[in-house]
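Hi R.,

As promised on Friday, here is the backbone we talked about, encoded as structure tokens. Could you run it through your design pipeline when you get a chance and send me back a sequence?
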């Protein structure tokens, strides 16, 4: 599915949309669509919404654009990027903004598995921070489960989210035995990746 913000002033005026607001609107609506496709109820603008049937297969989403803001936005939204102009710098910027995912765990229940993997991720993150704190100014005690969950380098995702993530990220790494994590927990993630993600990436 391709998404674009529009660029003709008269068309934006007809829709009552400011040029400066179109990026924010696109991000909000894509977030709503993703939640709607999950088939689960969610709150939006004071209403409970549920869309059925659930989307059977993850959609590949690509955002168009011709400037640096568009490249950064596509990376931030974790979607593909299709430049409207032939500018290699935009492609390079998009790749840089996507960055790397250094811990990827696939599960049917991300909230449950965040709690399961948290002790091992926190131990690793705090140990690295302790070793490097004098050089980098990191504070081990400031690393919490909440800060890890907000870190784009650590991802605990559903198979559908993983498909979308891997199509937009420059590199993703599994770390199934991080700091003594039980092998069976790592295997659960790897098998889900093999059966529910890999077929959609070929």
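Update: got your reply. Pasting your designed sequence below so it's all in one thread:
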């Amino acid at each position: 599915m391709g998404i674009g913000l529009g660029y003709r002033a008269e068309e934006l005026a007809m829709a009552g949309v400011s040029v400066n607001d179109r990026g924010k609107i696109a991000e909000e609506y894509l977030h709503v669509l993703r939640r709607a496709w999950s088939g689960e109820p969610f709150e939006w603008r004071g209403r409970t919404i549920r869309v059925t049937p659930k989307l059977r297969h993850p959609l590949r989403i690509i955002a168009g654009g011709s400037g640096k803001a568009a490249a950064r936005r596509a990376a931030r939204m974790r979607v593909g990027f299709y430049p409207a102009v032939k500018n290699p710098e935009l492609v390079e910027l998009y790749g840089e903004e996507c960055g790397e995912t250094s811990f990827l765990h696939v599960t049917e229940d991300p909230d449950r598995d965040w709690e399961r993997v948290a002790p091992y991720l926190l131990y690793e993150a705090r140990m690295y921070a302790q070793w490097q704190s004098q050089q980098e100014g990191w504070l081990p005690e400031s690393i919490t489960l909440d800060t890890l969950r907000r870190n784009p380098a650590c991802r605990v995702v559903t198979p559908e989210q993983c498909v979308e993530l891997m199509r937009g990220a420059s590199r993703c790494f599994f770390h199934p035995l991080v700091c003594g994590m039980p092998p069976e927990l790592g295997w659960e993630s790897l098998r889900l990746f093999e059966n529910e993600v890999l077929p959609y990436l070929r």
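One thing I noticed while checking it: The mean pLDDT is 84.

Thanks again,
M.
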